[in-house]
Design brief:
The chain is an alpha+beta fold and 316 residues long. The protein has 8 helices and 5 strands. The protein is 38% helix and 10% strand. A 5-stranded antiparallel beta sheet has the order 1-5-4-3-2, with no helix packed on it. Helix 4 crosses helix 8. The structure holds a DNA duplex (14 and 14 nucleotides). This is WRKY domain-containing protein.
Amino acid sequence: MDRLMNNEDVRAKRGKVIMELLKGKQIATRLQTLLHEPAAQDDDDGLGLAQQLALQILTSFTETLSELGSCSAASSQIAAVDKSRKKAPASEVKERRGCYKRRKSLDSWVTVSSTMEDCYNWRKYGQKAIMSSTYPRCYFRCTHKYEGCKATKQVQKTKENPIMYQITYFNQHTCNKKLRHLHDTGDSDHEDLNLISFEANIQSKQDQYSPNPMSSISQVKEEFKEVNNAQSDQNLGSNEAKSTLHDPWQDIDTELEPLGYKSTWTPIVGSCQENVGSGFDRSYEATSLQGFEEVNQLGNIDYSWYFNQVCSEPYL
DNA sequence: AAGATTTGACCAGT
DNA sequence: ACTGGTCAAATCTT
């Protein structure tokens, strides 16, 4: 087994994570400035630069995720050593339905995000009303479960800010299959496990599944215009139809849901707090360009995501 | 037809 | 007994 990380290492990792996020924020600010320049929006060079900046932001987030991933695993290892573990008795495999080992102590971490989306393929396997919560909790497992990937996540709207999702992840992905969505090039050799690629996540208008990051700024702009037009035509319903995945919360608070399309361009990591969340709301009421610019105020992201290591079992 | 989602049932932990 | 996590049949979507 690799050597365990000491506290020093963990601190160093945290420092690196913060640096990466600050870098991302800086680039996002540049992008925002650029987008405020009318000339840049019509000019190919300007758009090219914007795309480049956007890619840098994504790379920054990717680096961060990568660091956090290793932190997570390392912390699990520490916890595994520190805690006296009680090994559950090996229960015989039952054939009956609903038989499972209840989650007790797994490698887990929590993020708060404005979107349920991330760079992996998930399959929903359950939904539950939770006593202490207004909103139901949805259960997802990795699409590649049967290839041995044990990653799961639970998604729940936050009480304080219902446009935000609290996402609890359990177990790291072992499938190493990042999101390719429906535009599967079949070129798995080119998958960079630590890179969230804009290009790989392009999604056509026909795609019925969950929205994805866009390929370019201009595409985002076009998309935004469409969304705005659709909305001025009227109703959330037609936009919600973009996803076949029924929003379990929409019946509860449809008025709080800006649009089914929001996750198209919302950041997939980090915690977008109240100001950003309400920014999204406002952007829908603005003109398409204003809305677009507000959306790009990534500089307002509050990086108050946090890790919550609850582990008494070693990370495998 | 294949794959994804929904939803009621089942089961473990507290 | 209650609550929450998972299973799997039914249903839906592509």
